[in-house]
Input
Amino acid sequence: MAIDERFIEMATRRTLLGALVAGLVAPRLAFAQPARVASVVVLFAGESEHDEPAAQSFFDEMRRLGWVEGTNVTYERLEGRGEREYVEGLARSAAGRTPDLIYATTTSTALAVVKQTASIPVVFTSAADPVAAGLVASLARPGGNATGAFQSLPDATQVRFELIREIYPDLKRFGLLLDRRSPDSSQQETTHQLAARRVGLDLMTMKFTNFEAVAKIFANLRRAGIVAVGLTSSYTLIARRREIVDTALRNRLALIGHRSEWAAVGALMTYGADVAEALRRSARIADRILKGVKPAAIPVERATKTELVVNQRTAKTLGVTVPSSVLRRADRLIE
Output
C-alpha cells in the first residue's frame, strides 16, 4: 500500500516538536526545587515553657498571614533562663545560626543581637521606648537591621498611679522597683517621679543590679511600711516574674505592673498597652521582612490599645478591696 508522503512529513514534524518540548521541560522537572522554608530564631527572656504562651499572639498572627510552622517557616526557640549575664551568649548563638530573621521578645535581647550582627533582620516587641534604649535611631526611620513594635504609652504611668490611689485612698508612699541595667532606666525613673508628684504620692525608688537583691529590697520596703510596689520595664524582672511575685506576696506587698503577664502570675493589677496587639504588630512586620522588605524601611509601630487587668485572687490573699470603680473599667478579671 502506498503511503502518503504528506502524512510522513507531518508525523515527522510532530515527533521533532515533541522531542523539542520534552528536551525543554525535562531538565526543569529534573532540577525543580521545593519553595524555600524561612528560618526564624525566637529569643525568650526566661524559660520558653513560660514565655511562649505569653507570646502566642505573635505565632497566631504569623499563621494567619500564611506562615505555617513546619511547612514554610521553622522556629528555633532559644531561652535566656532569666539570667542577664546569659543574654550576650544567647544573642551570639542566634546570630551564629544565620537565620532569615531573629525575633527578640525584649529590648535587652534585641540590643544584644544588633551588637552581634548588622545584617540579619531583627524584629522586636519592646516594653521600653526603643529610641531611648538606643535600639533604633528613630521610630519613623529605624536606620539599621532592627525594627518592631513597642508598648510604652505616654500616659500609662500616670493612669497606674491614679488607679493605685483608688485602690488605696489613704496611700502616701509607694515603692518602685527599678533595674539599673535597663537601657532606659533614667527615663523610667524620671517618668515615674513626675507621675507620682502629680497624684501626691511620695515615691520610694529602690534600685537593683542583680536579681538576688530583690528579696532584700522587698523585705526593706515592708519594714518601711510600704504596701504597694510598682514594677518597671526590666529584662530580669519579666524573665523571673513568677519568683518576683512569690517573693512579694510573702512580704505582703501588692505589685502593680505595666503588662498583663504580671497579673497572670499574681500581681494585683496591671495597666498598660495591650501586649497582644503589640505582638500582632511585630508579626506583621516580620511577615514583610520575610517577603523582602528591609527593616530600615519599616517604621517602628506603637501599640495603641490599653488593657487593665485585676487579679482578684491576689486581692483576696492580701485582704485588699478593689473598688467597683476600678473593676468596672477592667478589661479582664482573674478570679
In short: The domain at 156-273+307-334 is CATH 3.40.50.2300 (Rossmann fold).
